[in-house]
Amino acid sequence: MQEDTVKIKKFDQKEWIKENISYHKDSGNWAWIYHRISGLALIGYLFLHVYSLSTLTAGREAFETKMKAFTTPFFMALEWILFIFVLFHSLNGIRIVLVDWADGARYHKTLYRVSWIAGIVLFLVMGYVMFSHEILKLFGK
């Protein structure tokens, strides 16, 4: 009696990165990757936010000095970049809920595209809201 042997693929740690980088990814894979990256970025921001608020323990003057530094155009640009992570994470989270709970699995690619389009529009609108007064100051209007 001849037994059929099933060949089980062994996990090779040395080739793991190479295999995962070369693997063809579709929109669902990229959404998963970006969702994790944006989540990590938001956790990092949370720690920075708590750290920056820690100047409250040093008194009002120290806190106001620190907050004044955060109103410079450089930090406003960083805040706008932070908005990218918040926006993607929230819109993709809504997309995930729709796919999981609202029978949206057959529309997941369309939902992914719509979330990107909505995100880009909202990102540009936020940029206008954040920087319109700075632009007006530059041109003296």
Description of the molecule:
- It is built from 5 helices and no strands.
- It is mostly helical.
- It has one domain (28-138): Fumarate reductase/succinate dehydrogenase, transmembrane subunit (3 helical TM bundles of succinate and fumarate reductases, Up-down Bundle).
- Helix 2 crosses helix 4 (73-101) and helix 4 (73-101) runs antiparallel to helix 5.
- The longest helix has 31 residues, at 108-138.
SSE topology:
Layout (H helix, E strand, L loop, with lengths): L15 H7 L4 H27 L6 H10 L3 H29 L6 H31 L3
Strand percent estimate: under 5%
CATH homologous superfamily name?
Fumarate reductase/succinate dehydrogenase, transmembrane subunit
Mean pLDDT: 84
Helix content: over 70%
Q: Might you state the CATH topology name?
A: 3 helical TM bundles of succinate and fumarate reductases
Q: Tell me which oligomeric state these chains represent.
A: single chain
Question: Please, how many helices?
Answer: 5
- Report, as a whole number of angstroms, the end-to-end distance: 91 Å
Please outline what is shown here.
The protein is mainly alpha-helical and 141 residues long. The protein has one domain: 3 helical TM bundles of succinate and fumarate reductases.
List the main descriptive attributes of the protein structure presented here.
141 residues; mainly alpha; 3 helical TM bundles of succinate and fumarate reductases; 5 helices
